[in-house]
Amino acid sequence: MDDWSIQEIAKLAGTTSRTLRHYDDIGLLAPSRIGGNGYRYYDERALVRLQRIMLLRDLGLGLPVIAEVLDREANAQPALLGHLEWLRKEQERLARQIASVERTIGALEGGERLMADQMFDGFDHTQYKEEVEQRWGKDAYAKSDAWWRGLSADEKSAWQERATTLGSDWIAAFERGIDPAGDEAQALARRHFEWLRGIPGTPGGGAGGPTKEYFLGLADMYVADDRFGANYGGPAGAEFVRDAMTAFAERNL
Questions:
Q1: Nearest to 235 by CA among 74, 84, 56
Q2: 35: left (phi over 0), alpha (psi -120 to 50) or beta
Q3: For residue 186, what pLDDT band results from cuts at 50, 70 and 90?
Q4: pLDDT band with cut points at 50, 70 and 90 for residue 132
Q5: Using CA atoms in the order 201, 203, 206, 210, what is the torsion angle rounded to 10 degrees?
Q6: Contact 221, 150 (CB under 8 A)
Q7: Nearest Cα residue to 79 out of 249, 226, 199
Q8: Positive or negative, the Cα torsion across 70, 78, 128, 132?
């Protein structure tokens, strides 16, 4: 088959024809050709682009940022290899979590003793230990590690939900093009400040809040380090967060 109709692609990709038409309207994914019946058709090259769009959406990037990434990384193969490496790591982590939860369910159903050392496989939060210690010192990591280990499962879930919601709200604000120095963005920056205040080990955490120097340094790091920038919609989104945090720090810290 040389190409596929929009209905076929929508079904295969688990999306809708309306979404694909929207991608065409904003210049993100154009059909390979328009048939005599007015239907859109997509060839293999378009399918590869759609796959990359969906992968980037799963990373939390907004459509404007996805367009920037695709334009910057025109060669699909190396970009997909990077995605594949990340997906394999996620697959391994999720497989370990699934096995851990299955063991817990089996133990509970069978009235067996729970094995604490097996219950949290795949939930490792220490993977960045060395990096944190290099950036902010061993004491900072030790305090935040002890705090995290002391939380209940419900508390950990609530904290992660708060972080996820904050990231999503940052991305939504960026995509709407609001002023980073405006009231709405500054309210987000204050939420970010309060979120950091609640993490022991953060310079100023648990007391008056993060120091100005730490808050500004973290804002710059979101832009400099792609791993963090991905949480805020990619490079442009990270720059928006940095500008909002910088404005907040200059006014309040």
A1: 56
A2: beta
A3: very high
A4: very low
A5: -140
A6: no
A7: 226
A8: negative
What are the helix (H) ranges across 14-115?
A: 17-25, 44-58, 63-72, 76-110
Q: CA 153, CA 39: separation in Å to the nearest integer?
A: 51
- Compute how many other C-beta atoms are within 10 angstroms of the C-beta atom of residue 189: 25
Q: What share of the chain is helix, strand, coil (3-state, %, to 5)?
A: 70, 5, 30
Percent of the chain with pLDDT over 90: 23
Contact 213, 155 (CB under 8 A): no
User: 38: helix, coil or strand?
Assistant: coil
How far is 125 from 123, CA to CA, in rounded Å?
A: 6
User: Exposed e or buried b for every residue in 228-251, given b needs 16+ CB within 10 A?
Assistant: ebbbbbbbbbbbbbbbbbbbbbee
